[in-house]
UniProtKB/TrEMBL annotation, chain A:
Its main location: membrane. It comes from the Bacteria. Part of the tripartite ATP-independent periplasmic (TRAP) transport system. The complex comprises the extracytoplasmic solute receptor protein and the two transmembrane proteins. It is a multi-pass membrane protein. Keywords: Cell inner membrane, Cell membrane, Membrane, Transmembrane, Transmembrane helix, Transport. The chain crosses the membrane at residues 6-39, 60-80, 100-129, 141-167, 173-201, 222-244, 250-268, 280-301, 321-352, 364-385, 405-430. Belongs to the TRAP transporter large permease family. The keyword Cell inner membrane applies. The keyword Transmembrane applies. Pfam families: DctM. This is TRAP transporter large permease protein. Residues 12-426 form the TRAP C4-dicarboxylate transport system permease DctM subunit domain.
UniProtKB/TrEMBL annotation, chain C:
Part of the tripartite ATP-independent periplasmic (TRAP) transport system. It is found in: Cell inner membrane. The complex comprises the extracytoplasmic solute receptor protein and the two transmembrane proteins. The chain crosses the membrane at residues 28-46, 66-85, 106-124, 144-164. Belongs to the TRAP transporter small permease family. InterPro entries: DctQ, TRAP_DctQ. Its main location: membrane. This is TRAP transporter small permease protein. It comes from Billgrantia desiderata. The keyword Transmembrane applies.
Length: 434, 304, 182
């Protein structure tokens, strides 16, 4: 059979399975079993899947995932969140559109402490959003800033998605993690400018706040209370940037530091710790079951010879590298509207990996941009976990309003991605230090 | 239909073009295109998990290093402690022992063991001190070298291979054990200043075939395949002697200075390494493993 | 996390005792997964401290951490299947009429049971082989490979059973009410 028929058939079968609501891990597992059966004529090849499950399950690089999740859980289940909120709230002065700015700065800080956009969106949606609406801030712009801000979490380290992408693409996970720092800050700045300009153009979007004028002493106190928590960020980023520990080790140290700091400076008790561990086991199980069931997908592709044919076909195409790059990024951007981000990475990365090599793109640059592209996927309607996570805590907001609120921010993402493509140094500078 | 060969490395690793691709091309040529083999790399099955899929017939050939399936058996790994002389190796009868082991235990036929005409060494940040060994040094080492490092009074550190560069750079480890080929490919010469001499052991690459596929071949094809492997053991080894000389020169030009073990240790590094290897062979491969060791000793093919 | 499954007269006491035992085992193994998270965190942190502060790098730490990480996955997974907590994309099915949606769900449960059972079968045989041969993980610390393979087998077997149970109960009462917030 022709390779493009095979790959299209596999692709549509997988999409069909997703559409039936079949768990993602099962969709991949079923496709892999079917693929191996067709290639081998018997089920004996299932041993390949079993071995792949074993290897993926014991892969210490992936062990960063539960540790990143645990870190976020510890911080969010003690009241560290409120301390950080008060600090940012106190530090940002009496500018127009103040709470928009607060929400963006806060989401960047939370992004540096949490590995997942969903967690940040759910938390900010539960804490900051009611406050913004009570004070008469525009509902849609409030939701938009929170969603956009949450999408920084997978870009700024720690990041579960960066670990998954690093495993799938074979680029250094440490490199991919730190590559996100500058783009994350750039995006936060862009969002900040956008809300300030919107507030300036249309004052009705943001009321003038009455009370945000704290004495400097109090502001300093609020900031000082937040300093210990910044130590957690410094531990993780410092160890990775200095190259003295793997991301997994840095994450474990981060968790240990977080437990100590949160028990002293926040309200971390045994019950909160138990809940944090319980939730970590649950979410890790959810993500890792997908990973162990699906990594053999790339093996099946390789055995079928599809990968080889696809790369030959792509490299024979007579189009410029720029167009090729745009096409390679546009495909996941569109697919992300409908497919889960991790599922999409598992689907596309094994196909993209040899193409990226063959076309001579810098892998770190390419995959860092791909990661940012995927992060936007969480907020592109109609399907996006971050969207649902926010709607889950803001139930009275119709999903259509949530959809509309993010469009402008998606445009900003697209604009920043273009900037990053044109100026690779923004991405490559920090990884070059490791 | 064409056959498949599972390789533990990508084609960029120098043993693949010389031995794996060399074997496939020669087999194809001598059979007049009848026997066609296609390669599948580590992206299809990870290197450490390749024995089982070939045993069960999912692939026809396996091109690997004995240490990569050390969890299953140490038999092929044992060859790393056997004198680097293809003819004497064949004459001593140890091939038959290894072959028997893989046939009965793993449903695999041993096709050939290819020497890379070179062994292993340590890359160090500092030269060897007065102790003459690795005293006080932490050395990144895979299972292949654990006994070795400990015998030389060093501390073993396990890190993934991908971490070696930064670990050497930051001084997380004082050195790393590796086959003599590698410092140039992975740019470790930038972060290590010394390499130890003498080198120790022999790097061998093994080629196996699924036993059912082997038995299904005609006698003529079987002879052809074994003939190709036998010739390649000699010609490929010669090829590697040249490569090794070039690599050694390139490493020294790149700034890796030679640091010698102390006179007492230097005369023993080979036998210390061999002792570690034989320990693994005996532990992991049962009576045939012990017989393999004894046979090698009798034939004078291993350091005592 | 206790769920009140509706009393179904068709289920005889033996079946009910068996399902209750199955659920208890799942709760127990989820505890194992939680212990795995703690062990992974502590021992990985200890490795870093040992390396830099104490100057005594140890290799057993990362070897055993890898095993505990695998246990987190395979011990937690049955709970996810029990509580229908796996990630999936339900938007389309939820938009369908109840009747067809129910049949699609049933098909999915059956597929889940079959796929997990098939993989569990091969993993179980492989566990036996690894046990009989005494195959070790390639690591500095000798750890039998069958430990992890047996955990994998357990996880998939239990998941297959839950899919089968969900399939059967979908005929006994209208809608499964089990759900768990992650
Ligand atoms: Na983050
Ligand atoms: Na989306």
């Amino acid at each position: 059979m022709e390779w493009y028929i095979l790959i299209s058939a596999a692709f549509f079968l997988l999409l069909a399975l997703f559409a039936t609501g079949l768990p993602i891990f099962l969709s991949f597992l079923a496709l892999n079993i079917l693929g191996i059966y067709l290639l081998r004529g018997s089920f004996d090849g299932v041993m390949l899947i079993v071995n792949s499950m074993f290897n993926t399950g014991t892969n210490m690089s992936l062990a960063a995932i539960p540790l990143f999740i645990l870190l976020g859980e510890i911080l969010f289940r003690s009241n560290a969140v409120h301390i950080l909120f008060n600090a940012v709230d106190g530090l940002i002065g009496n500018i127009r559109a103040r709470l928009y700015a607060v929400s963006i700065v806060l989401s960047a800080v939370f992004g540096a402490l949490s590995g997942s956009a969903m967690a940040v969106a759910a938390m900010m949606g539960a804490s900051l959003l009611p406050e913004m609406r009570k004070r008469g801030y525009d509902r849609n712009l409030s939701i938009g800033t929170i969603l956009a801000g949450s999408s920084l979490a997978p870009i700024i380290p720690p990041s579960v998605m960066a670990v998954v992408l690093g495993i799938l693409s074979g680029v250094s996970i440490s490199g991919l993690l730190v590559a996100g720092i500058l783009p994350g800050l750039l995006l936060a700045t862009a969002f900040f400018l956008y809300v300030v300009i919107r507030g300036w153009l249309n004052p009705s979007l943001a009321p003038v706040s009455q009370q945000a004028k704290l004495p400097w002493r109090e502001r300093a106190m609020l900031f000082l209370r937040a300093v210990p928590f910044l130590l957690i960020i410094i531990t993780i980023l410092g160890m990775i940037l200095a190259g003295v520990a793997t991301p997994t080790e840095a994450a474990a140290m981060g968790c240990i530091v977080a437990v100590i700091i949160c028990s002293i400076f926040a309200k971390l008790d045994l019950k909160a710790l138990y809940e944090a561990v319980r939730s970590t086991a649950w979410i890790t199980g959810m993500i890792m079951v997908i990973m162990v069931s699906s990594v053999s997908f790339s093996q099946v592709l390789n055995m079928s010879g599809v990968t080889f044919e696809l790369v030959a076909w792509v490299t024979d195409l007579d189009i410029s590298l720029v167009l090729m790059f745009i096409a390679l990024m546009a495909l996941p951007f569109v697919l992300c509207m409908f497919i889960d981000q991790i599922a999409l990475m598992i689907l596309l990365v094994p196909l993209y990996k040899p193409i990226v090599t063959a076309l001579g793109f810098d892998p770190m640059w390419f995959w860092a941009i791909f990661l940012i592209n995927m992060s936007v996927g969480g907020i592109t309607p109609p399907f996006g976990y971050t969207l649902f996570a926010l709607q889950g805590v803001a139930r009275d907001v119709p999903i259509q309003a949530v959809y509309r609120s993010v469009l402008a921010f998606i445009a900003i993402f697209a604009f920043v991605i273009v900037l990053l493509a044109l100026f690779p140094q923004i991405i490559l500078f920090l990884p070059s230090l490791i | 239909r064409s056959m498949t060969m599972l390789s533990s490395w990508e084609a960029s690793y120098n043993a693949v073009p010389v031995f794996a691709e060399g074997f496939m091309e020669e087999v194809k040529e001598r059979s007049g295109g009848e026997l066609d083999i296609r390669m599948r790399g580590p992206e299809t099955v990870p290197p450490f998990e390749q024995l089982q899929p070939v045993s069960s017939g999912m692939f026809d050939f396996l091109f690997t290093h004995g240490a990569y399936h050390l969890g299953e058996t140490g038999m092929a790994f044992g060859m790393d402690a056997v004198e680097d002389n293809p003819e004497e190796r064949r004459e001593s009868g140890i091939y038959e022992l290894i072959d028997e082991h893989y046939q009965t235990e793993h449903n695999l036929k041993l096709i050939g063991v290819f020497s890379a005409a070179s062994g292993y060494h340590f890359l160090l940040r500092e030269p060897i001190g007065d102790s003459g060994d690795l005293s006080g040094m932490s050395i990144r080492a895979s299972a292949t070298y654990h006994d070795m490092v400990q015998e030389l009074n060093g501390a073993v550190v396990t890190l993934p291979a991908s971490e070696i560069y930064s670990a050497l750079d930051r001084g997380v480890v004082d050195g790393a054990a590796w086959p003599v080929f590698g410092a140039m490919d992975y740019s470790w010469y930038e972060v290590a200043d010394y390499m130890t001499r003498p080198t120790f052991g022999v790097t061998n690459l093994s080629l196996f075939m699924n036993l059912d596929r082997w038995n299904a071949l005609s006698e003529k094809d079987q002879e052809l395949i074994l003939g190709v492997a036998k010739d390649l053991e000699i010609s490929g080894r010669e090829h590697f002697e040249t490569l090794w000389a070039e690599e050694d020169e390139a490493m020294q030009e790149a700034g890796l200075a030679i640091t010698e073990f102390g006179p007492e240790t230097a005369s023993q590094v080979d036998s210390i390494f061999a002792a570690g290897v034989w320990k693994q062979v005996r532990e992991r491969s049962g009576p045939l493993g012990a017989e393999f060791h004894e046979r090698a000793v009798e034939a004078g093919l291993t350091a005592e | 996390m206790s769920t009140s499954s509706p009393q179904v007269p068709l289920l005889n006491p033996v079946v009910r005792a068996l399902t209750r035992a199955h659920d208890s085992l799942t709760r127990l193994s989820f505890w194992g997964a939680m212990l795995g998270v703690v062990y992974l965190t502590v021992v990985t942190g200890w490795e870093v401290i040992g390396r830099y502060v104490l100057g005594t790098p140890a290799s057993w730490t990362s070897d055993t951490a890898a095993v505990s990480f695998a246990l987190v996955t395979f011990f937690a997974a049955p709970m996810l299947t029990w509580k229908a907590g796996h990630a999936s994309m339900n938007a389309i099915v939820e938009a369908l009429p109840t009747g067809s949606a129910r049949w699609i769900r049933r098909f999915n449960m059956l597929l889940g049971a079959a796929a997990c059972a098939l993989v569990a079968w091969y993993a179980g045989n492989e566990s036996l082989r690894l046990y009989n041969r005494g195959v070790m993980m390639i690591a500095a610390t000798p750890i039998p490979k069958w430990w992890v393979m047996a955990a994998l087998t357990y996880g998939l077997t239990s998941m297959a059973l839950y899919f089968a149970r969900h399939f059967i109960t979908s005929f006994l009462h209208a809608e499964p009410t089990d759900s768990e917030n992650s």
